[in-house]
Amino acid sequence: MENNWSNKSDLLKSKSKNFIYEIIDEDMKTKKWNGRVYTRFPPEPNGYLHIGHAKSICLNYGIARDYNGKFNLRFDDTNPTKEDQEYVNSIIEDVKWLGGDFEDRVFYASDYFEQMFQWAEKLIKKGKAYVDDSDPETMRGLRGTINEAGKESPHRNRSVEENLDLFNRMKNGEFKNGEKVLRAKIDMASPNMLLRDPVMYRIIHSEHHRTGNKWCIYPTYDWAHGLEDSIEGITHSICTLEFEVHRPLYDWFLKELEIYHPQQIEFARLNLTYTVMSKRKLLELVEQKFVDGWDDPRMPTISGYRRRGYTPEAIQNFAEIIGVAKRDAMTDVALLEFSIREELNKKAQRVMAVLDPLKVVITNYNGEEVLEAVNNPEDSSMGHREINFSREIYIEKNDFMENPVKGFHRLVPGGEVRLRYAYIIKCDEVIKNDKGEIVQLNCSYDSDTRSGTGTSTKKVKGTIHWVNVKDAINCEVRLYDRLFTAEDPSGEKEKDFKDLINKDSLKIISDAKLEPFVKKFKPGEKFQFERLGYFCIDTKYTTNEKLVFNRTVTLKDTWAKTVNKNRI
RNA sequence: UGUCCCGUGGUGUAAUUGGCAACACGUCUGACUCUGGAUCAGAAGAGUUCAGGUUCGACCCCUGACGGGACAACCA
Predict the structure, then answer these.
(1) Residue A357: enclosing H or E segment and its boundaries?
(2) Which nucleotide is at minimal CA–C1' distance from A459?
(3) pTM here?
């Protein structure tokens, strides 16, 4: 996929910047980092990336690009029980696809384990860290609460020698999981809970996806994260709001260690209406089969959006228009849908497909002819294609109404409508089966009205799409709707988010009709089905025998809107 | 002994750092149209959570309320 990041030099000059750019501008002015800008994206490989991560990637990579700095991809792989190589691979793929260019700089926290161990020993030697034998429950009891100070562990005042010895024996595997931890010696009475002697190392006898069985003690996030940024020379450690309270702890570690000290800046994570955004919840959806894997097109994962037909550019643009700030927000999915519509409108090949076919026989037409159709009215360079027209065609069932409502201007008994790129037809007869269902329309065409000839002055209210029966190809079309019925599925007090899943979020149409032109395209390619929406060929279920389409997003539909309004 | 963040149209952001609130999405009109799409033109919609204070002047600075969020994993 092409990487089309727009250059933002204009933006840099303009006065409207988000607060992070303003901080960096100031840093550049004061030469705080000697003109250096270095950012990173630091995911834990314990799940697939979602659209919230995309916001972070765009922000971090965008900053590096705009200030001629560097951008690292770094895996925060400090907990072997939750992490997996599959996730590492998917994350690399997704970041690249999105356009986050880390060049050859893929790093791993696990590469820094030795250095971190030495720094831990340094803190022990300074009397700033100690080995604690307390079990988790005891530790929790001693930590106090938000309103009362904690109490010191009985092991808090062990000698440096004993701590060093114990810590090394922890490393050497002499103890079982949970038997001992290394703690920073800060302040059990701090009003900031994170400063009440946080755990730095815990014992986990598990195989790590990269270091294997080399280690059985693993650094906690709070101990490790600031060190990783320090080691890589990151200038601006950009993270989400919930880590604001952690900052004093990172500052403490870096200061005690007397090592390079990046600046942490927090911003508000992305929340999207009608979606859940936590990896834990997404994992639940996958494991409990509410969806068909991490890349199910209904998932807010990057791989889900990719499969659904979103482009990197649309997601980048979305990240751009939602901005970056410090207040919690709930972004309307309409903004995301706007981004993909805007792009696909300019780029997508137009094609005609009928999802719910109704046969039309044009009784006064005999023979066959070839008509010319525009591939994209927004881009004449995409040219034309040929489509066959003959006596029998399919139209959309809902483009005909036997008893039309007010404002309906498609086909009605005795009425006329234009067939796109073809003729104006008139409905002469409605044919029904025993059950009274409409099974066929007999129509007549007006030979003077062929598209492009200009031989007719006849005006009709509507134009509908159609597919030629004789050479139509069958395909499967998957229509997606929002995965949740609630605007904020995670915010519902009474209900579990899984009870708010939209049961109609996937509708499979197994026998849609499509013009044969599409045959030559490959999985992943994108189209507009005229009057219906944007669709792409599914990369997972398409076979040589069967084309499967995913609906990326519908077209804006003002008619559907007025219909819905009148219903209410 | 609680601490720390944050409050601007329906939504997301902006306001040249103190000069009577702008942009995008959405909504609603109308024009145009062989996609009820796109495009074009226009409209409605906030007086900036509230109350004081400083100032000639406050979204912006100060104080205090109120509201929202984060923090008490050997998760990240």
Answers:
(1) strand A357-362
(2) B34
(3) 0.95
